[in-house]
Amino acid sequence: MLRHIKERTKEHEADERLRRDKPISEHFNGVDHGGQDIGISVLTQKRDSCYYRLIQELEFIKKFESQSPNGLNTKYQIDVLLREII
User: Fold this and answer.
1) Where is this region: Disordered (predicted)?
2) Buried b vs exposed e over 53-72: b needs ≥16 C-beta within 10 Å?
3) What is the 3-state secondary structure (H, E, C) of 20-85?
4) I want to staple 15 with a disulfide (CB 3.0 to 4.6 A). Which of 19, 20, 50, 67 is the partner?
5) How far apart are CA 63 and CA 59, in angstroms?
């Protein structure tokens, strides 16, 4: 399910604040980090196509090497695509 950036940001902040068992929470509740360190950056403009947005997301995950274990993205590319197909 695709969500607006404001909604997704609130979800990440709540994960950190409530210390949920999520990669973002573990990262920002670790040493030398806190909720005040969370930042949001818009990487591309909104497109109407959900498929296009998913492809863009996968490309950014690859470009910025944000796939776990080096980054915080824990879903594999095929999982992201399958969630829209199924």
Assistant:
1) 1-30
2) ebeebbeebeeeeebeeeeb
3) CCCHHHHHHCCCCCCHHHCCCCCCCCCCCCHHHHHHHHHHHHHHCCCECCCCCECCCHHHHHHHHH
4) 20
5) 6
Residue 50 CA to its chain's centroid (Å): 16
Q: Is the separation of the CB atoms in 74 and 23 below 8 Å?
A: yes
Q: What is the pTM of this model?
A: 0.68
Tokens for 29, please give them. 């509740």
pLDDT digits (tens, 9 = 90+) for 24-61: 888 888 888 877 888 888 888 767 777 787 788 888 88
Q: What is the pLDDT of residue 52?
A: 82
Please check whether residue 67 is in contact with residue 61, taking contact to mean a CB–CB distance below 8 angstroms: yes
Q: Quick check: helix, strand or coil at residue 3?
A: coil
